[in-house]
Amino acid sequence: MFEGITKGLQGALSFFNRGKLTEHNMQDGLRAVQQALLEADVSYQVARTFVQKIEEEAAGTKILESLNPEQQIVGIVHQQLVNLMGPVDHSLNIRRGEITIIMMCGLQGSGKTTTCGKLATMLKAEGRRCMLVAADLQRPGAVDQLKILGEQIGLPVYSEAQPTTALKVCANALAAAKRSQDVSVLILDTAGRLHVDQALMNELEEIDRKLQPHQVLLVCDSMTGQDAVNSAKAFNDALELNGVILTKLDGDARGGAALSIRSVTGVPIKFIGVGEQLEKLEKFHPERMAGRILGMGDVVSLFEKAQEQFDAEQMEAQRQKMLKGKFTLVDFKEQMKGIRKMGSISDIMKMIPGMGQMMPASGELDGAEDEMRKIEGIIDSMTPRERENPDLIDNSRRRRIAKGSACEPHDVNKLLKQFKDMAGLMQQMAGKSKMEQFRMFQQMGQSGMLNPDAQLQAAKMRSKRGPEDFRAEAEKKKKQRKDAKKQRKKNRK
Ligand SMILES: Nc1nc2c(ncn2[C@@H]2O[C@H](COP(=O)(O)OP(=O)(O)OP(=O)(O)O)[C@@H](O)[C@H]2O)c(=O)[nH]1
Ligand SMILES: [Mg+2]
Q1: What's the pTM?
Q2: Which terminus of the chain has fewer Cβ atoms in its 10 Å neighbourhood, N or C?
Q3: Is the distance from the beta carbon of residue 273 to the nearest atom of ligand 1 less than 6 Å?
Q4: Which ligand 1 atom is nearest residue 273's CA?
């Protein structure tokens, strides 16, 4: 997601990290920020205003005189991105005791029908029963598509064998929902067109006037950039949208739509579609999106994803342990297993702050997976007592563990050091504010502590110099000790 803009902005922000910042290179940096936005298909006006705001903020915080202008400017850019995409409003204002009508609209192929299904799935999980309404009479197959979705989710779909108008279908559906008595949300799947046209707008406006949906949501394909934003404006003028759902953010969207739509239309982005499957709908969070755009990662999403995968009780137990500083190697391994369960390692790495920039080529990630497996192997070769108390691990235990996991004693050492650092940091983090935690995570990312690939690089460098001969080193030390002992004996004589 947004790889282009992330690289562009990171490049632009590096202008602020070249020794002392002057008015001159400040302007270069700002121009590069604007360029990165334009390349991501952000509208010119939005990009221009964005950069002006950064300039004002930078002047206000006296950034030229500060010691770490880059950090400050990243902070300012992050905040401006959040302002640009927010504020957010996830509510659908579902009403008690009456049927809430949600009308979906948008251009052809934007993802309306799929999103109807996703929204119904989300609401179902909240204990609300939806009815889907097949009001797209344009595209052959549209009705069947919705029926299949309804079947998959286990929800009723209202459709007519010989429909006359979309408005009639919607009105009849509302009557049917009222009769059924157990439907609380009616979701209208309307037709799309390749471009905004009057016939489509008339049809939608008529439904809007007669049925007065509580929510009119625009489904917008994030891959279409500025076009999407222009059509959003037209839909909003005709229908007074309550919110936007951006779809296909899992693809290679350039970011233009996400960044401009709120400021151009004034309508909040409520949800984002991040895949074709029914559960791939997420609440939109501008701070997280800004973090991802800047390559600072998305710890919160990662945490939520982890929470879905991990057993909730186990998670809570680990959190408590972390708070008390009792996080052990067993927990460490469990976490790593959990991470592997979460899916592709490259997706996960992108979400960890500081890792975005360090993402290796995709082939090398297999190496990172191997590295994780190796770490698991090392922990498996320890005795339960060693896992609970790694301080027990002396030289001979280290050799045994290395042998058992087919690696070198220094790999065991490295893991233990990493674990110690991480457990220490986790403990320090426990009492800190969210912002502080974020910063600490970033440091962890940059120091390579969370980055198996950094270890991989180290291994590669070693192999260029030739493998380190630890045995020879140990023999040498042993000999030195022996010699020293002899010398002491001699001295005593
Ligand atoms: N990758 C990805 N694909 C999506 C997402 N949302 C929808 N799609 C795909 O986009 C295509 C079009 O989706 P539909 O839901 O049929 O779009 P529509 O707006 O109803 O299209 P019409 O009814 O023809 O106007 C389908 O292949 C969907 O699987 C998403 O968030 N991510
Ligand atoms: Mg459709």
Answers
A1: 0.66
A2: C
A3: yes
A4: 31
